[in-house]
Write a structure and sequence with these properties.
The complex is a heterodimer of chains A (401) and B (244).
Chain A lengths: L1 H10 L3 H22 L11 H26 L7 H18 L13 H5 L15 H25 L4 H20 L11 E2 L3 E2 L2 E2 L3 H27 L1 H11 L1 H5 L5 H27 L1 E2 L6 H14 L5 H20 L4 H15 L3 H9 L5 H9 L26
Chain B lengths: L4 E10 L2 E11 L4 E5 L6 H8 L7 E6 L2 E2 L5 H7 L1 E4 L11 H7 L7 H5 L5 H14 L14 H15 L3 E5 L7 H14 L4 E5 L3 H7 L2 E6 L2 E7 H6 L1 H8 L2
Helix pairs in contact in B: 3-6, 5-6
Classes of the chains: A mainly alpha (401), B alpha/beta (244).
């Protein structure tokens, strides 16, 4: 325990940790409390809309952190992280469908879409999802298992760089087509929707939504802390070493397959958790979540925020999605151009992303960091949170001859 | 005395080209062996076969009495064969110290590594390597920023920390300045005795200065083997090196 405490104390010297702490506190405490406590006429009142959007963005931020772990640190550019997110979402969605009970349009115990398709009984893979704990476990296990199996074959065959990215993209596309089919049993292109309650609490109720938002904030904080601890461990150093010189890692006695699988599966599990938190807040999950473009967008968040920094990934997810929410309303036709332009500008001018930009703008005032710095202004210490050296976008390997 | 490493009738084809042709070679513990030969003689392919990077079409490699022909790279490393590449390969995004830390001997499984901390012994081994390679002052420098020669030494240092039983060194002085070559000679000489070392090179001056036993490869076969003086005067070797 004291080791953990020491680590936390050390982490507090980095301003990026404070940025994340503020974001997490905002999502976990400030927004939900401002929604629940002040009366609706009070200027301090946080609207339903704000609570939902903040909760949604926090889910995206979790995915971004997970993506940064595999892309920024391990150099694996995944273009199927939205699939893991959607799988987690579907698992939770199945529970929410089951908990509608007989309140559906057809007053049947079966989910509406099954009645519509004239199915007489629940498919075997829907069993168990009437229990919350089962669905929650599946939201983590299914993406983890899918990622593990896919990763096992891909990494064992030493598929890397752009080839890996292309295969992941094909993978999520194939899954999308599968989920679009009515016969697959997940509601076809309409997906799962019309949810009524979670654990007995009505989803329309503001307090339920505030709690979900708070939980998402806590999940974001935990995801960030886990990924940061992982990155700071020797495994984190092996991951970055693999990104820079995989062959040398192999000849240093490490099995890259095991390390990649570990980071990859862990990342997918985090995405599953994010998806499971997302669906009750948004009220729908359908196969369009699995579109390749959704996964590309995740990569854009991370690139815009700053790869290999974790905090940057969170900022990137919030910034890009914030811009998207605003622009798709204000200038609907311009959004895709802005997104593309943003990616180009960041790649060309700010390879370290927003985080690098902020850092360049000046020392971000962080009480402890500044104090610590002025006390021991001699002997500048290496800032372990500085971005890693530039490398190719797909984390291409430099092989020795 | 049984051999530490024996390579038995190894054949490797690359698209019809015979890189190694029933090559047989054996090595005693504690030996410092130089493998020389003109370009394309199969020196690097031999290293690739021993370290598991290339699978031979036929033949076996035995190390310490164990058949390692079909093992993968990291398993071979775990058994105690370390390799230094021709081009210096270090982890550019890590400091010199972290580079050495990553190669410390021991269990390299994911979960062990997750909670790994440097033991006093490991710290000492790293300090010794820093000392021997003259990189003690650069311990906090990113390895990517080191000079070519320093990278070569760091890579040798990483192998020292790893403490392999057998050390394979591929063209350690290629692209080095004269004073760097001398320093490398010193480092390698200090290794012989405690470790079994195989040096691959075609720089005859360098080989002459460190070698005791020399193996000459030509077209994937052993052309001659013995003390440097004998090998140098072998008419077949002269022919291969100077042309008929």
């Amino acid at each position: 325990m004291s080791q953990v405490a020491a680590r936390v104390r050390r982490a507090m010297h980095h301003w990026d940790v404070w940025v994340v702490a503020v974001v997490c506190a905002g999502v976990t405490l400030v927004v939900p409390l401002l929604n629940v406590l002040p009366s609706e006429r009070s200027p301090l009142h946080a609207s339903e809309f704000l609570v939902t959007i903040v909760g949604k963005f926090a889910c995206y931020a979790i995915v971004a952190v997970a993506m940064d772990l595999v892309w920024g640190y391990a150099g694996i550019l995944s273009l199927c992280h939205a699939l893991f997110f959607a799988l987690g979402g579907y698992a939770m969605g199945m529970y929410l469908m089951r908990s509608i009970g007989t309140e559906g349009v057809y007053r049947s115990t079966l989910p509406d879409f099954m009645v519509f398709l004239d199915w007489k009984e629940l498919p075997w893979y829907w069993h168990g999802f009437e229990h919350f704990w089962f669905a929650a476990a599946m939201a983590l296990l299914v993406p983890g298992l899918v990622a593990y199996i896919f990763g096992f074959f891909a990494f064992r065959s030493r598929i890397g760089g752009v080839y890996f990215s292309i295969i992941t993209q094909a993978f999520t596309y194939a899954a999308m087509l599968l989920f679009f089919r009515n016969a697959t049993g997940f509601g076809g292109n309409n997906g799962l929707t019309d949810f009524k309650r979670i654990l007995g609490y009505p989803l329309r109720e503001p307090s339920t939504r505030a709690v979900l938002c708070a939980l998402t904030g806590a999940a974001l904080a935990i995801s960030y802390a886990l990924c940061r601890a992982l990155a700071a461990s020797r495994v984190g150093r092996v991951l970055t070493a693999m990104r820079d010189a995989e062959s040398k890692v192999r000849f240093s006695g490490y099995n890259p397959v095991a390390y990649k699988l570990f980071a990859w599966t862990f990342s997918a599990v985090l995405c599953g958790a994010a998806g499971a938190l997302y669906v009750p807040q948004v009220g729908i999950v359908n196969p369009s979540e699995m579109q390749p473009s959704s996964s590309v967008e995740i990569a854009v968040w991370v690139a815009v925020g700053g790869r290999g920094t974790l905090a940057g990934a969170i900022l990137g997810a919030l910034f890009v999605n914030g811009a998207k929410s605003w622009l798709t309303v204000a200038f609907p036709t311009a959004w895709l151009y802005v997104l593309g332009g943003l990616f180009v500008v960041v790649t060309l001018l700010l390879p370290g992303g927003l985080l690098q930009g902020i850092r360049a703008l000046g020392r971000i005032p962080s009480g402890t960091a500044r104090l610590a710095r002025s006390v021991r202004s001699l002997a500048p210490k290496r800032d372990s949170s500085s971005p890693p050296p530039a490398h190719s976008i797909a984390g291409g390997e430099k092989t020795p001859p | 005395m049984t051999a530490l490493l024996s390579v038995d009738k190894i054949t490797v084809h690359f698209d019809g080209f015979r890189a190694l042709d029933e090559l047989t070679l054996s090595l005693q513990a504690g030996e410092l062996r130089c493998v020389v030969g003109p370009n394309g003689a199969g020196k690097t392919t031999l290293m690739d076969v021993i370290t598991g990077k290339t699978r031979p079409d036929s033949g076996t490699v035995t190390f310490g009495g164990r058949d390692i022909t079909r093992l993968s790279e990291h398993e071979i490393v775990a058994l105690g064969i370390g390799r230094k590449f021709q081009r210096p390969t270090v982890f550019p995004g890590h400091t010199v110290f972290e580079n050495l830390e990553l190669t410390t001997k021991g269990n390299k499984g994911v979960f062990r590594t997750l909670f790994a901390h440097l033991s006093a012994d490991e710290r000492q081994a790293i300090e010794r390597a820093l000392e021997l390679t003259g990189l003690a002052d650069q311990r906090r420098t990113l390895a990517g920023l080191l000079s070519h020669g320093q990278k070569q030494w760091l890579e040798i240092g990483m192998l020292l920390v790893e403490q392999p039983k057998l050390l394979l060194v591929d063209e350690p002085v290629a692209g080095m300045a004269q004073h760097e070559i001398e320093r490398t000679e010193e480092i390698l000489a200090s290794l012989a005795g405690q470790h079994t070392v195989v040096v691959v090179d075609h720089d005859m001056a360098f080989v002459r200065s460190i070698a005791r036993t020399v193996t000459v490869l030509h077209e994937g076969r052993v052309l001659a083997e013995g003390p440097m003086r004998d090998v140098q005067n072998d008419p077949r070797v002269i022919e291969v090196y100077l042309g008929a």
